[in-house]
Design a protein that fits this description.
homodimer; about 160 residues; mainly alpha; two-stranded antiparallel sheet; about 55% helix; about 5% strand; DNA-binding
DNA sequence: TATTGTTATACTCTATAACTATA
DNA sequence: TATAGTTATAGAGTATAACAATA
């Protein structure tokens, strides 16, 4: 018995395992930190996106976050119902919606973004500050490597936030 | 317009965003690499686990990988149908199953584990070897920090692989 | 004819609860 | 009574397809 075939077969060292569990833990911490503000991590992502300089259209926002447009509709429905964003038809192209943060949306954004950062610090707690920064940079390099910023609109997209 | 509120609000720098997208890319690479062997990444995880020194029971295996026992049943059903594992009742406690790799299971494990490692190298390609190693270690420290190895059997479990 | 937002539907994944057989 | 494995059901999350308005 005990036929271990070398350290290469340790499941809990696989990169996929590590990423999945790290992400799951991050999700848990986000949920905990954001609960008081009645937004979830993905909704906060949308708020952050709208606060930036690239609101343009719903579809653009959807691609930017990596969800399809029907999911974005649902996300914005929720946020609009909570009074955090407003939608109105674009004057220049009336097929499009201009989506903007409301005043409460901006307040919620500020408060929940801060809580979200605390959650990230909590995940990184076991690392010293330098390693934490390295981790962020390494992940950023990996993610931007194949998916250059705001890629091809026609490219098939996989789920994410 | 263009009311950007500082770099702290860049969605694509959020840790959750980075982890989710890195994991999604890893999943894509695994799927691509493992397709020829007719196993997916999670099934390979089970094969690796069984090859190790801790097969004991299905429930033990399930906890180890972070899925619940009903999902493990389904996973093993699939693997058994493919002829990669065998199940037989444990002589000492006939409620339990002893799960073992078949000969083909071992062959498939070797080949697909190797392909899986290539997929991981592909994800890490944009990093130099040292940074890649740092990334693995940092993630491992984060993941093992709150979830010490083979935790409490009664603890509620969240999805993962 | 193509595109945006929307709605409705179907599908995948996973957890929950209920059943059996053993202990 | 409690536990391992199994089965059936239900729920969340997401993608696919179809539709209306506009370009």
């Amino acid at each position: 018995m005990s036929n271990d075939s070398g350290p290469g077969l340790d499941v809990s060292r696989r990169l996929g395992y590590l990423l999945k569990h790290a992400q799951a833990e991050m999700a848990r911490l986000y949920a905990e930190a954001l609960a008081p503000y009645d937004v979830d991590a993905r909704e906060l992502g949308v708020l952050m996106l709208l606060a930036g300089h690239e609101p343009s259209s719903q579809q653009h926002a959807a691609r930017r976050i990596g969800v399809d447009r029907t999911t974005m509709v649902m996300l914005l429905d929720t946020l609009e119902a909570k009074g955090l964003v407003s939608r109105r038809p674009d004057a220049e192209d009336r097929r499009r919606n201009v989506v903007e943060l409301t005043a409460t949306g901006q307040d919620t954004l500020r408060a929940s973004a801060s809580a979200s950062e605390a959650a990230e610090r909590a995940l990184l707690a076991p690392l010293d500050p330098q390693d934490a920064q390295h981790l962020r940079e390494a992940l950023h390099r990996i993610v931007t490597h194949r998916a250059p910023a705001d890629a091809d609109p026609h490219a098939p997209r996989r789920a994410a936030t």
